[in-house]
Amino acid sequence: MIDADGNQLGILTLADALEEAAKAGLDLVEVAPNSSPPVCRIMDYGKYRYQQSKKKTISKKSQTTIQVKEIRLRPKTEDHDKQIKLKHIKRFLDQNNKVKITMMFRGREIIYADKGKKIMEDIKSELEGACTVDREPKLEGRNMIMIVSPKK
After folding, report:
1. What's the pTM?
2. Tens digits of per-residue pLDDT, 33-86?
3. So where are the chain's domains?
């Protein structure tokens, strides 16, 4: 058993431990039930739970959530439209979001997969300093996917 100050009191019976806790005006809390003998501590359980909830909220505040944003292109997308999509990608990267760039091929456009690969490589070269490539452009079915994340 451990008292409120952190000093070890030794092995006590349950009745003696409860009596010690009552003298201190605190609660008897079982800390390590699986050890032999079980370890109990005298503490203010309400205060302990409050401190645990405070720690939990502080850890949630410091936690950052990263979202994955998606930009879709087609092999026939014009240059001006690509520049606008590129601005969107840069804005997402500035907001510390990952970006999934998807090149969609419809119908017989799949024969232009090499053109789509070239467009993806152009985008990758334009974003060279702003991001790191998590996943190289890869054709999956009728879509070519590349994932980029912001630099640390």
Report:
1. 0.61
2. 888 888 999 999 999 899 999 999 998 888 777 889 999 999 998 999 999 999
3. 14-61, 68-150
Q: Are 31 and 39 in contact (CB under 8 A)?
A: yes
- Helix, strand, coil percentages (3-state) for the chain, rounded to 5, are 45, 30, 30
Domain 68-150: CATH class, spelled out: alpha beta
Q: What is the CATH code for 14-61?
A: 3.10.20.80
Kindly tell me the burial class for residue 93, based on how many C-beta atoms sit within 10 Å of its own C-beta (0-12, 13-18, 19 or more).
buried
Regarding beta strands 68-73 and 98-104, do their DSSP bridges make them parallel or antiparallel, or are they unpaired?
A: parallel
Cβ atoms 40, 17 nearer than 8 A: yes
Q: 49 with 61: CB under 8 angstroms? A: no
